[in-house]
Amino acid sequence: MGKNITHKIIEKHLVSGSMVPGEEVGLRIDQTLTQDATGTMAWLQYEAIGIGRVRTDLSVSYVDHNTLQMGFRNPDDHRFLRTVAAKSGAVFSPAGTGICHQLHLENFAKPGATLIGSDSHTPTAGGIGAMAMGAGGLSVALAMAGEAYFIPMPKVVKVELTGELTGWAQGKDVILELLRLLTVKGGVGKVFEYAGPGVASLSVPDRATITNMGAELGATTSIFPSDETTRDFLTKMGRADDWTELVADADAEYDEVVTINLSDLEPMVAQPHMPDQVCKVKDLAGKKIDQVAIGSCTNSSYSDLKNTAQILAGHMTPPETDLMISPGSKQVLKMLSREGLIEPLLDAGARLLECSCGPCIGMGGSPVSAGVSVRTFNRNFEGRSGTQDGQVYLASAQTAAKLALDGEFTDPATWGPAPDRVSLPDDVPSIRDLFVFPPEDGSSVEVLRGPNIVALEDFDKLPETVEAKVLLKVGDNITTDHILPAGAQITALRSNIPAISQYIFSRVDEGFVSRMQEHGKGVILGGENYGQGSSREHAALGPRHLGVKAVVVKSLARIHRANLVNFGILPLLLVDPSDYDRLEEGVDLTIPASEITPGGTVNMVAGNGATVAVTNDLTEKELQIIQAGGLLNAVREGKS
Ligand code: F3S
């Protein structure tokens, strides 16, 4: 039987398990990446493991989220990250160099390599054939320490691409179409592997946009073949030696197949407040637009911004429509500058922002109250823009640039000819010297900490019986942004767990933290897809610090589930989802924790005498980790 690309890579990196979908596999990890918002904690955890030098082929620490240095907290964290990377043998990318995924794609990712990153959009590197997965910071810390990364063996979905993109349709529209078809839950436990004659027509930036937003499907990852297009990209990046061909066997088998005819696609947009609320741009014609933001790890490549400049050249945005642009990397910025493409952006009224996540993570650029913001980003969850009632739409860079000029949604049939598809120049400028490579021997490097760097606390073991009240009941599709909002003030506290925990669920229920402090322990009750969205492990660490012992939900998002396990919180699933309606906030729960077995069912007893059956999808090892009080305890006890 022929093999698909996913199976080829997994087989080569398999250290434990059999490749049966759903069963746990352990993978050797070649590369890791961290970013400052989650990575500062990952590096504190790495230090707590006490291993010395990183044991991966390559680990890179990027600073791209909290680049604003207002007050001592962020600069303290950046200095800590720079020095701990030098001591530990990791590459450091300073603030302003670019967004981790764009930089990693351009400079470090390799076809056929395994990569995990403490950021959910790590699958961007799948655009050149890396098997790249978002993970909790602790899993990344362990991978840096040479430990395997454990995942349930995914199913492999073949996305058969036929036809060719035409007109204004872009890579973004491919993934928006998949989101429309499959929804934000459609990819859970699956790898989306792209194949078919349409692949050759897609550039690497288009492919990377598609794999980036595979995260919004809930997928384990997404991957493209490594072909002549990949070779050309890597050669132009000065990395011809990193290219290897990687294609599925002609008779490869897949668990599922989805077919998309690229020729049928037209500009699309995801409407507030979910990436799968997709419609055609023309269906919104006439709706006023207050703001357009072009950038983020999804659409900030040279081709995106060159097209943007071409569309804007010689025109002005209307005064009611704010336009901001964040290039993905200094390499992109240098190419634009060299080709005289900055001036048309500025002359059109655009604000040029730093090469960083910027508005995508709420670092400035919030829309006006109830404002309509068209963004080229990957997420449009309520409040993530920093404006609680902001109405965020997601579109390609080309669509966003055109709409910025129009000041309202218009029908693409009236837009005239689309700009030509862009390929990279032959002489791409290198930015390699901007990275800080570690010394051969880091033993004399002093790791510098400021008052914002607070060492990790120890967590207790799980008691045999959990007796706690439901202190919060939330609905479906709770995101990690709901659990812990982003934004400058909050994420500046990422290396200080006691301080950041004060913001847990602060935008959902202001009284939650005080109730937790009053009772010292509690349970959260949730609906479907609890914990979707960003990989931030503080959304598990913060609740754990406050004393959350279990989350009882209808279903869980993959990365957040892993984070709950890592920090010793029981992730329990209601056997009968209608029991959700029988449990109210304030009810006392007794959970027989010592009776829980992998995949088994136990009965919780509620204060009103009702019994509620809960199950789990934990492995034996994960259960041991939770019983030990989390993964760090388990590693120290030799149970992982
Ligand atoms: Fe940054 Fe937004 Fe991507 S926060 S890593 S640009 S999803």
Automatic annotation (TrEMBL):
Residues 8-284 form the Aconitase/3-isopropylmalate dehydratase large subunit alpha/beta/alpha domain. NCBIfam families: acon_putative, PRK07229.1. GO terms for biological process: tricarboxylic acid cycle. The keyword Nucleus does not apply. This is Aconitate hydratase A. Pathway: Carbohydrate metabolism; tricarboxylic acid cycle; isocitrate from oxaloacetate: step 2/2. Its EC number is 4.2.1.3. It is an enzyme of class 4 (lyase). Gene3D superfamilies: Aconitase, domain 3, Aconitase, domain 4. GO terms for cellular component: cytosol. Pfam families: Aconitase, Aconitase_C. Keywords: Iron, Iron-sulfur, Lyase, Metal-binding. GO terms for molecular function: 4 iron, 4 sulfur cluster binding; aconitate hydratase activity; metal ion binding. It catalyses: citrate = D-threo-isocitrate. Residues 517-574 form the Aconitase A/isopropylmalate dehydratase small subunit swivel domain. The keyword Metal-binding applies. InterPro entries: Acnase/IPM_dHydase_lsu_aba_1/3, Acoase/IPM_deHydtase_lsu_aba, Aconitase/3IPM_dehydase_swvl, Aconitase/IPM_isomerase, Aconitase_4Fe-4S_BS, Aconitase_4Fe-4S_dom, Aconitase_put, AconitaseA/IPMdHydase_ssu_swvl. Its cofactor is [4Fe-4S] cluster.
